[in-house]
Design a protein that fits this description.
It contains 14 helices and no strands.
Amino acid sequence: MGIKFTNSEEKLEKFLQPVYTRECEHFKLARKFMNKKNYRQAIKEYLMSMIFTKPDTLVYKEVSKAYKKIKCYDKAISHLVKAKTMSRFDSEIYYELGLNHLLNANSDEARKNFIRTIKLDPDNVNAQIQLAISHELMEEYDMALSIYQKVIEENPRYIPAYNHKAGLHITLEEYREASKLFYEILKVNPAYYRANLGLGICFDKLNKFSSAIRYYKKYIARKPHSDTTKSLVGRICEIYSKKRDKKGNLRVVK
């Protein structure tokens, strides 16, 4: 179960956190660079702010996000570990640690941090989804499916949970189960065009080509200029061609 801390201990820890960093000009400039998506320059300014002020959890978290943006996950993790030593109750730190470990192909460490995030913030649905993804990458598919299902039951309008669960069913070649989830998505949001693509793929794999074409066309109508549409047009032409060949063969055979 772990150690439980009293509210007074938690408040004391937060009170003892230094607040000087946010007043530093380098820190303010770093934030401006972050807003402009100039992450490398932001990192330089964050690091400069650490020289001129006593670093707090805020600067460690923010510089880690900049490192994550440039895919330097090890450095992002090292700064988050420093932040964690200063604040054991900040769920964002554990969530960011989980994301960086996941991006760094360390699914087990990601899993541990997402579990810690959820313990601190049980309503963090994103952390629950990322926990399921961690299990999925570890090939613990039953666990991943059960987490997705739990999120769906508790948040019946949360489309990402349906999407991820459907995607896993497709990976497992369970196309009927996946199609049911895409139908549920359209009940929640009929305008969610990606569900039409998912249904098209499922019916295509199930050799229900007329249904596949119908849903492919619905997707194409919403995204006529996408690269996916170009591929779908090719697939539709291929299906029609096979149908014509099949009919031609039937006429030849007597």
